[in-house]
């Protein structure tokens, strides 16, 4: 917080009465959300109702896998599968702590068994096989469990002839599983070839961040690739690149918008329009008749043109 | 299928993971060009991705292996300082991966087996590499190598790090030279991320289980090619001989398979990779 002096405190948060400890303790924690980008403050409730997007600056905050699923699918249609898959510690890996301990801590923190939640759901009436990553679980890293779940999600797509959708939010492969995590890139990419062969649509949605081993495998192999605004999307980490080339990179380097300009992302879609975009796209790709979208919020236009 | 013919009877078997890691970077160690010259005849280098430029970090071309036409390619780290810079230390750009798959597809059309030699500390982490889609190039290669209907034999000859290695590394058989290493990240990179300390490279090298023996135990590779005592550089001829024999054996097994069975075998091989409980 070294730059507090550059930004005068907005009036509306100065008006709180002087608080005693007792008063402070009675106010629930996490009542407010402060945008790390613009500093705007709103209640958590309003923030969540706005799909965890800052109403002032449009910053798309990372969200949990379960919140993401809730935002995207037809209400009540999600059926989770393969939830019981759990990572073991095949390398007996220890860095600052044991991998097994990191796993336990992540499970406790997120209530998940690993960094991806998968299942089936309907989106605008189209049945899909869905895999959604949760960055809060060890940085959304890809280990054996994630690779297996993505693989099974794709196999289910082929078996039932339903589209596959992944939402990535990840720092890449899980180093604690060494070479086995690298092999998940091979495993998931092979399934992308099988999806292609079977003529099943695969839509890859890139949320912040989508990088490294996951980007260098299935996430880059979508028939259509959609990214959220401002997400960090790339292969090598920005810091590593800067150290390698000894140069400071521009702020928009490796953003969704940068990737779209360079031809690696089809469209950058705001969270508020993501579900609607998926409904339109899925129904087109599955040769299903259009459905009226007036009831879907977030758009007044029938033509979706990417921002230049 | 993995066979228990990992040869560990040499004196180097007592080396630590970090010592092997260092041996893999030994300045006199045979590199891709040495292996191409020693094991193949009539090598014709083919250049370029037909889109942007030629990537000198990857050497590729047609050749003959025991008189049979084939394609051979690999990352070349270079030996002298000038050469190493030209080769970008064996770190490829997207155009390198695109060149690789172009030439593999050429092999596919003319029914030639593909031999791949891996020697890289990773795909190049540069600004232009990102602008030209490093991640996409690697992902596409992995997917499209799976579809090849000719035998693909991959060997890690020195360094094998991350998507940079796997981007030309999906095969029907994957071998490792005894003192090579293969992992999801270089030990330096891992030390910097997990320990915030590059000095922990040796610790990371041990933790990552990156030696041929460990990778074999994890079911990721099919065979370890033994090196002479003290490493391949002490007796390159002996190394070439063992390596050649291994390639002959695996090629013979793969040539007996129908093209579709190669793809099925590849599916089975990679489908089962990973360790978890349910």
Low-confidence stretches of chain A: none
**CATH architecture annotation of the largest domain in chain A:** Alpha-Beta Complex
Structural class of chain B: alpha/beta
For the largest interface in this structure, which chains are involved and how many residues does each contribute?
A-B, 63 and 54 residues
Anisotropy-based shape of chain B: globular
Oligomer: heterodimer
CATH class of the largest domain in chain A: Alpha Beta
Order of helices and strands of chain B: HHEEEHHEHHEHEHHHEHHE
CATH domain fold name of chain B = 2-enoyl-CoA Hydratase, Chain A, domain 1
- CATH superfamily of chain B, by name, is 2-enoyl-CoA Hydratase, Chain A, domain 1
- Computed structural class of chain A: alpha/beta
Main sheet: strands, sense, barrel of chain A: 8 strands, mixed
**How much is the radius of gyration of chain B in Å?**
18 Å
- Specify the CATH homologous superfamily of the largest domain in chain A: 2-enoyl-CoA Hydratase, Chain A, domain 1
Just name the CATH architecture of chain B. Answer: Alpha-Beta Complex
CATH domain topology of the largest domain in chain A: 2-enoyl-CoA Hydratase, Chain A, domain 1
Overview of this protein structure:
The complex is a heterodimer of chains A (308) and B (278). With 308 residues, chain A is α/β, with parallel strands linked by helices. Chain A has ten helices and eleven strands. Chain A has two domains: 24-59, no CATH class; 62-302, 2-enoyl-CoA Hydratase, Chain A, domain 1, CATH 3.90.226.10. Chain A is 33% helix and 17% strand. In chain A, strands 3, 5, 6, 7, 8, 9, 10 and 11 form an eight-stranded mixed sheet that branches. Chain A has a two-stranded antiparallel ribbon with strand order 1-2. In chain A, strand 7, helix 6 and strand 8 form a beta-alpha-beta unit. The longest helix of chain A has 21 residues, at 178-198. Chain A is globular, with a radius of gyration of 21 Å. Chain A starts with 20 loop residues before the first helix and ends in a 23-residue tail after the last helix. The mean pLDDT of chain A is 91. Chain B has 278 residues and is α/β, with parallel strands linked by helices. Chain B has one domain (17-268): 2-enoyl-CoA Hydratase, Chain A, domain 1. Chain B contains twelve helices and eight strands. Chain B has a seven-stranded mixed sheet. In chain B, helix 4 (94-109) packs parallel to helix 6 and helix 8 packs across helix 9 (201-207). Chain B starts with 16 loop residues before the first helix and ends with a strand. Chains A and B meet through strand 4, helix 5, helix 6, helix 7 and helix 8 of A and helix 5, helix 6, helix 7, helix 8 and helix 12 of B. Strand 4 of chain A pairs antiparallel with strand 8 of chain B, so a sheet runs across the interface.
């Amino acid at each position: 917080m070294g730059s507090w002096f550059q930004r005068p405190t907005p009036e509306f948060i100065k008006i709180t009465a002087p608080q005693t400890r007792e008063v402070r303790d009675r106010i629930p924690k996490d009542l407010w959300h402060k945008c790390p980008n613009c500093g705007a403050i709103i209640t958590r409730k309003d923030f969540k109702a706005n799909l965890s997007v800052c109403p002032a600056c449009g910053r798309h905050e990372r969200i949990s896998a379960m919140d993401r699923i809730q935002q995207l699918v037809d209400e009540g249609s999600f059926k989770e599968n393969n939830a019981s898959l759990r990572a073991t510690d095949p390398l007996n890996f220890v860095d600052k702590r044991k991998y097994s301990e990191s796993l336990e801590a992540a499970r406790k923190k997120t209530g998940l068994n690993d960094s991806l939640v998968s299942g089936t759901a309907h989106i605008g009436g189209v049945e899909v096989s869905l895999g959604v990553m949760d960055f809060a679980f060890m940085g959304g890293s890809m280990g054996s469990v994630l690779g297996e779940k993505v693989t099974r999600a794709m196999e289910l797509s082929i078996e039932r002839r339903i589209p596959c959708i992944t939402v990535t939010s990840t720092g890449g492969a899980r180093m604690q599983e060494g070479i086995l995590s690298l092999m998940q890139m091979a495993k998931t990419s092979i399934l992308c070839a099988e999806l292609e062969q079977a003529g099943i649509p695969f839509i890859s949605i890139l949320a912040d961040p989508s990088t490294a081993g996951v980007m260098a495998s299935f996430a880059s192999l979508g028939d259509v690739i959609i990214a959220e605004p401002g997400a960090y999307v790339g292969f090598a980490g920005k810091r590593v690149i800067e150290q390698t080339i000894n140069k400071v990179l521009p702020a928009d380097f490796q953003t969704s918008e940068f990737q779209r300009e360079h031809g690696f992302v089809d469209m950058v879609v705001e969270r508020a329009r993501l579900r609607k975009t998926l409904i339109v796209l899925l129904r087109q790709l599955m040769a299903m008749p259009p459905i009226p979208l007036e009831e879907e919020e977030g758009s007044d236009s029938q033509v979706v043109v990417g921002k230049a | 299928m993995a066979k228990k013919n990992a040869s560990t009877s040499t004196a180097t078997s007592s080396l630590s993971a970090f010592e092997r890691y260092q041996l893999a970077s030994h300045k006199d160690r045979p590199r891709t060009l040495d292996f191409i010259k020693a094991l193949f005849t009539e090598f014709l280098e083919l250049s370029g991705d037909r889109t942007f430029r030629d990537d000198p970090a990857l050497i590729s071309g047609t050749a003959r292996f025991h008189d049979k036409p084939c394609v051979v390619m690999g990352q070349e780290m270079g030996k002298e300082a000038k050469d190493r810079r030209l080769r970008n230390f064996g770190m490829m750009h997207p155009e390198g991966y695109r060149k690789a798959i172009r030439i593999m597809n050429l092999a596919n059309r003319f029914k030639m087996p593909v031999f791949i030699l891996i020697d890289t500390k990773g795909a190049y982490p540069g600004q232009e590499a990102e602008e030209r889609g490093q991640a996409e190039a690697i992902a596409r290669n992995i997917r499209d190598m799976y579809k090849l209907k000719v035998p693909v034999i991959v060997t890690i000859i020195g360094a094998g790090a991350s998507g940079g290695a796997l981007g030309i590394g999906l095969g029907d058989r994957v071998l490792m030279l005894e003192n090579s290493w293969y992992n999801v990240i270089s030990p330096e990179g891992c030390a910097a991320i997990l320990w915030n300390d590059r000095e922990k490279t040796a610790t990371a090298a041990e933790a990552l289980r990156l030696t041929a023996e460990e990778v074999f135990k994890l079911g990721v590779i099919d065979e370890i090619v033994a090196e002479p005592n003290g490493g391949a550089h002490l007796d390159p001829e002996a190394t070439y001989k063992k390596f050649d024999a291994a390639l002959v054996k695996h090629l013979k097994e793969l040539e007996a398979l129908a093209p579709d069975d190669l793809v099925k075998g590849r599916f089975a091989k990679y489908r089962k990779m990973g360790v978890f409980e349910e």
